[in-house]
């Protein structure tokens, strides 16, 4: 190890005249650490991971009994082939150093490679894969948040900073919105069961409390601190809750099973409050826009009504003057009615005179038409006589023809009609057995016979 000019060569105490400042002490300690310990590989599990806006990555590397802070600068972090997460077991190629501003001993990480996933992170991934395979995280089952909730339910610890963040956000965005707290611890061995019971209680009392949305919130922490939100029973309870659930656990980079099971994930507790109050907050902005428009509309309406009032005042007259005007109007209308009636009567008389003249002109003259009537009568009598004679002759011919075709006339010429005992006319010998009774109809009577044989015609 090279000698430090500020330290005595024989290892004796620094003289009083050489009192060091804190900055000098920390610089000396950093130089000693960096020169004494070479660049080395250190293995452990990541926790408290923070990705700064500058691109630098800060985290804690730990094992079962110790931990050390680590910093990885942006030019190194952007070369990583994987995304570090809390709970991952990694191997860091790092230089031991000291952060002089705070006097904190830390590792300056040059490279990082996976060394296997930590037990908690591995259990998280197994549970996540199992519930995803069951369809518990399907988008189709997620419910939309109501635009204007009546009240919000919050499941968290009453002492949690997350509760204060949510209340501050709501006070800023929707101060009128009631809040119902369902208290439960957010860390510890009994936290999962208590959180589960709080969610169930919120679901049972939703109608009674008037709650439309449930917020499940907690501040940031390591994977161990947030482990209560990776409980399988809690995830199933969130999915079965009758209320839509917004989960705001940890920071933006923190993910839990509850985030995937909830209807909506918020990056932070404040973000959960913003999502739940988005409708009311937007309504405030819309009202701010509508307020001047409403004011102008009311002012314009008042102006129109004032003008109508002024015009009505101008038309307002004394009742005596109004009655006088009405009498004059009535007199004028009476005169118009009298003249109109007279004109209509004159027109009616004229029409009656003209109709009488047309009626007399159209009256019949019987003497002029008598000869024509006698002539037409004679013609009608002669035509009727000729028609009757023609019809009589035709009738006689049809009667003779009918008599010629009558069955009795046919029988008189020597024909006969044979019938069986049922009275049906026999047209063929087929089907008539010997000995069958047959009735034969002749012109002057009937013969009852019996078949004794069949012969050909």
TrEMBL record:
Its main location: cytoplasm. GO terms for cellular component: cytoplasm; exodeoxyribonuclease VII complex. This is Exodeoxyribonuclease 7 large subunit. It catalyses: Exonucleolytic cleavage in either 5'- to 3'- or 3'- to 5'-direction to yield nucleoside 5'-phosphates. Keywords: Cytoplasm, Exonuclease, Hydrolase, Nuclease. One of its GO terms (molecular function) is nucleic acid binding. Bidirectionally degrades single-stranded DNA into large acid-insoluble oligonucleotides, which are then degraded further into small acid-soluble oligonucleotides. Residues 20-112 form the OB-fold nucleic acid binding domain. Belongs to the XseA family. The gene is xseA. It is found in: Cytoplasm. The keyword Nuclease applies. Residues 136-449 form the Exonuclease VII large subunit C-terminal domain. Signal peptide: none annotated. InterPro entries: Exonuc_VII_L, Exonuc_VII_lsu_C, OB-fold_nuc-bd_dom. Heterooligomer composed of large and small subunits. Its EC number is 3.1.11.6. GO terms for biological process: DNA catabolic process.
């Amino acid at each position: 190890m090279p000698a430090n000019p500020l330290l005595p060569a024989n290892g004796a105490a620094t003289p009083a005249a050489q009192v060091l400042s804190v900055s000098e002490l920390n610089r000396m300690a950093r130089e000693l650490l960096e020169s004494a310990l070479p660049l080395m590989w250190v293995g452990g599990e990541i926790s408290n991971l923070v990705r700064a806006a500058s691109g630098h990555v800060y985290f804690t590397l730990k094992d079962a009994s110790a931990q050390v802070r680590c910093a990885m600068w942006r030019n190194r972090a952007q070369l990583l082939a994987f995304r570090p997460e809390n709970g991952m077991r990694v191997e860091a190629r790092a230089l031991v150093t000291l952060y002089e501003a705070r006097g904190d001993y830390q590792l300056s990480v040059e490279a990082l490679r996976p060394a296997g996933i930590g037990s908690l992170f591995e259990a998280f991934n197994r549970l996540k894969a199992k519930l995803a395979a069951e369809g518990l995280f399907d988008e189709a089952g997620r419910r939309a948040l109501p635009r204007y909730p009546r009240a919000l339910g919050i499941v968290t610890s009453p002492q949690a900073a997350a509760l204060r963040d949510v209340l501050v956000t709501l006070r800023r965005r929707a101060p009128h919105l009631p809040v119902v707290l369902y208290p439960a611890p957010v860390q510890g061995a009994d936290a999962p069961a208590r959180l589960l019971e709080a969610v169930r209680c919120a679901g049972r009392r939703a109608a009674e409390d008037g709650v439309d949305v449930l917020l499940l919130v907690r501040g940031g922490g390591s994977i161990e601190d947030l482990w209560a939100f990776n409980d399988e029973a809690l995830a199933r309870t969130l999915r079965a809750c009758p209320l839509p659930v917004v989960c705001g656990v940890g920071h933006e980079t923190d993910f839990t099973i509850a985030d995937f099971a909830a209807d909506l994930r918020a990056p932070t507790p404040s973000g959960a409050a913003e999502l739940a109050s988005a409708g009311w907050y937007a309504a405030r902005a819309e009202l701010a826009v509508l307020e001047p428009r409403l004011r102008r509309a009311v002012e314009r309406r008042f102006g129109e009504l004032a003008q109508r009032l002024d015009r009505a005042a101008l038309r307002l007259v004394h009742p005596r003057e109004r009655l006088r005007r009405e009498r004059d109007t009535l007199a004028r209308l009476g005169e118009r009615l009298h003249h109109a009636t007279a004109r209509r009567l004159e027109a009616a008389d004229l029409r009656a005179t003209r109709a009488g003249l047309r009626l007399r002109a159209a009256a019949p003259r019987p003497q002029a038409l008598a000869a024509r009537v006698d002539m037409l009568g004679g013609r009608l009598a002669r035509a009727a006589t000729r028609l009757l004679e023609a019809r009589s002759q035709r009738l006689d011919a049809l009667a003779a023809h009918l008599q010629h075709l009558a069955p009795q006339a046919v029988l008189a010429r020597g024909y006969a009609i044979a019938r069986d005992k049922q009275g049906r006319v026999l047209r063929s010998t087929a089907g008539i057995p010997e000995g069958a009774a047959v009735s034969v109809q002749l012109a002057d009577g009937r013969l009852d016979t019996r078949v004794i044989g069949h012969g050909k015609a």
